[in-house]
Design a protein that fits this description.
Blueprint lengths: L1 E2 L20 E4 L13 E3 L4 E2 L1 E3 L3 H4 L5 E3 L7 E3 L11
Parallel strand pairs: 1-2, 2-4, 3-6, 5-7
Length: 89
C-alpha cells in the first residue's frame, strides 16, 4: 500500500488486529483509526508516517494491547499541550 491509509478501513468497526507495517503509507497518524475502538493491536511500523499522536490515544482504544510505530522514516511524536512550555527547561 502507498499513500494515505484507505478510508474504507473505517467501515471495519469490528477490526481487531490490522497489520499495516512494511508498506509505503504516509501522512499523519490515520484519524480514521480513532473510530475503531475494537482494535487490540495497531501495527504501523516501517512506513512514512509523521506528525503528532494524540496524548489521549488510550481513550479511543480501550482494548489496545500493542501499538507498533517503530522505524517510520519520519517520526510520530506523542503530543501534550504542556510540552511547548518545557522548551526552556
Amino acid at each position: 500500500l502507498e499513500g494515505q491509509v484507505p478510508t474504507s478501513l473505517a467501515r471495519l468497526t469490528k477490526l481487531r488486529l490490522p497489520g499495516l507495517s512494511l508498506n509505503s503509507l504516509s501522512g499523519e497518524f490515520p484519524p480514521l483509526l480513532y473510530n475503531l475502538s475494537s482494535l487490540e493491536l495497531i501495527s504501523l511500523s516501517f512506513n512514512n508516517f509523521s506528525g503528532n499522536l494524540r496524548f489521549d490515544l488510550g481513550n479511543y482504544f480501550p482494548n489496545l494491547l500493542i501499538l507498533y510505530l517503530a522505524r517510520n522514516v519520519k517520526s510520530l511524536v506523542p503530543y501534550h499541550p504542556l510540552w511547548p512550555m518545557l522548551i526552556n527547561c
